[in-house]
Predict the structure.
Amino acid sequence: MFINRKLFVLQGLHDYEEFVQLRTLCCICRLCEQDLLEKPAIYELLNDIIPFLAHPNEYLRMATLNILSTLDAKFNVADILCKVMPVVEPYIKERLIRLQNKFVVTASLRPYIPRPIWNYVVNISSVKSLLNFIADKQIYIALDGNSDSMFSTSKKYQPISAQLESCLKHLENLGLDHNIEDKLVRFENIITKMIHFRTSLDAANLNPNLGIIDLLETDVKLHVFDLTSDPKTACVK
């Protein structure tokens, strides 16, 4: 039962429509309030929930804060500090001990991903390559000790396709920086599954026979009942 709930929840979080994601986050909050999700399941879901703290949609951010507030009320301090806080810390500017006060957490949040950048990223076909390149770039920057470092050289001369280079230039014009790149990388799992969901949906819509059952091709005997005649004399053909 808990496995089925988790699978349905993940499907909602990975949906392409933000309204569906919002309802899913609200559903998770209710499940947590009523203790219908076990701790291990919640811990596994955190990596798909917490990135919404950086989503451009304010309602999604607030729904995520509601979940954190509920978990803070349900979990003990050790659970919050050891399991929840390590996932939350990349999204806040100050180190917090508790998450129950939504106003304090809101004031501590780092800037979210700008809407123009988000819309561009989730609508390009090469999103996987883009996010992989950004993730590699983040690693090179983290390992770069000085200008003579081998990682610095690799970072500078790493080959990329013309399409990917065009995408990066466009994102830079939209205001992409190191902090936004970090948030996009943390969203990678969700974004790629959103794209996969949309692609699957578009492919299904291209099938004109989807949802149509041709009775002539089935082993079904058709019957005709005459409703215009006298019921006593009417018969089934």
About this structure: The chain has two domains: 8-108, 115-206. The chain has a mean pLDDT of 84. The radius of gyration is 25 Å. Residues 8-108 form one domain.
